[in-house]
């Protein structure tokens, strides 16, 4: 069974994302129901952690939290990543999914 795309784990929220590095525009571009992941485009190439850093900034900005509260939990060298956000942001992420 596949885990939920967004869930609480202790005192942090985990969200499954698919990243599109090297895109023309940056931001949350939607949700892929067949993969069960939030889709995020970043302008930065996947070199020296630039795409990961931009991804963290996009997620933080979208949720209105400091980027220091957001980190890549798993998949640092993969397009499919698990992002950790300190605190409970499940409802905010579900609302973000609905807006896109």
What would you say about this model in short?
This protein has about 100 residues and is α+β, with helices and mostly antiparallel strands.
Give a description of the structure.
This protein has 100 residues and is α+β, with helices and mostly antiparallel strands. Helix content is 24%, strand content 36%. The mean pLDDT is 91.
Order of helices and strands: EEEEHEEH
The parts where pLDDT drops under 50 for at least 5 residues are: none
CATH superfamily: YggU-like
Q: How much is the radius of gyration in Å?
A: 12 Å
CATH class equals Alpha Beta
Strand fraction equals 35-45%
Q: Decide which structural class fits the backbone.
A: alpha+beta
Residues in helices, as a percent range: 10-25%
* Rounded mean pLDDT score: 91
**What is the name of the CATH topology?**
Conserved Hypothetical Protein Mth637, Chain: A
- Give a quick account of the main beta sheet: strands, pairing sense, barrel closure: 6 strands, mixed
- Count of alpha/pi helices: 2
- Overall outline: globular
Intertermini distance:
26 Å
In the CATH hierarchy, the architecture is 2-Layer Sandwich
Q: What is the count of structural domains? A: 1
Number of strands: 6
